[in-house]
Amino acid sequence: MPTMDTANTLNIDVAATLDERAEAYVTIAAALDWLRSHADAQPSLRDLSDYVGLSEFHLQKVFARWAGVSPKRFLQHLARDRARAALVAGDDMLSASLAAGLSGPGRLHDLVVTLDAVTPGEMKSGGDGLTLSWGLAPTPFGLAMLAESPRGLVKLAFLEKDEHAGSLTELHHDWPAANIERDDVRAASTATRLFTHYAKPEPVHLFVRGTQFQLKVWNALLKVPEGRLTTYGELAASLGQPTAARAVGSAVGANPIALLIPCHRVIRADGGLGGYRWGETRKQAVIGMELAQHAI
User: Fold this and answer.
1) 144: which residues sit within 8 A by CB, 6+ positions away?
2) Which of 67, 88, 263, 266 is catalytic?
């Protein structure tokens, strides 16, 4: 893990706008890419600041604005021993959570996420009579495409630059008979609601289509608290199917709604990150921020 000789914590800049945090993520992502490729050299904060073209002071401000913690604290939580420490306490914890139907605040900034599944009839109709609104918006983890229906969010996908064609094609494939309209203003408003601090829990409704097994996996993911992690094997065991880790992995990878259905909280049993639909760098960023802020 890189040597970061600086203070452990900084106060989060709650006044930072979504655009400012999205801009900061560009630097964070570049830093994470570089650190991953230079890990063996144990680079210092000065090495990192030289690479991103900022002074050490300004690099710390970027991390504080984006994650609310110093580079040192953030990067400490990307080490495998920290990831292993954040794993949930075995199958019993997840099983108990599922049995109790536990869900509540703790997602992002005290969001209460509820998942509403598309019925077989609605799936067969392809969204006939339904109007979907989609748009692009900045987030603390880069540009995202958001799509909503009157019954809730149907898609949240991170993008590289403005490359949204693939996500839009997926939206049309999943909802071939729906009326699909672009509305970037609405998408930006939704992103602000999702990524802003609230004084009380904020309800967020998801409207997703998937197989019964996928829905079981996605609901199980909602029970993994922010600041904790699980493995594919533990997730499978919590569903009463301990030999289905590979199928669980496929369901995790098919998740249509990033962050809110927290597939990023599933890692390998050895503490390695594993794959991520929206890129390993972004998974590092999300996990690092969550673990650092929860001080695991």
Assistant:
1) 136, 137, 138, 156, 157, 158, 159, 191, 258
2) 263
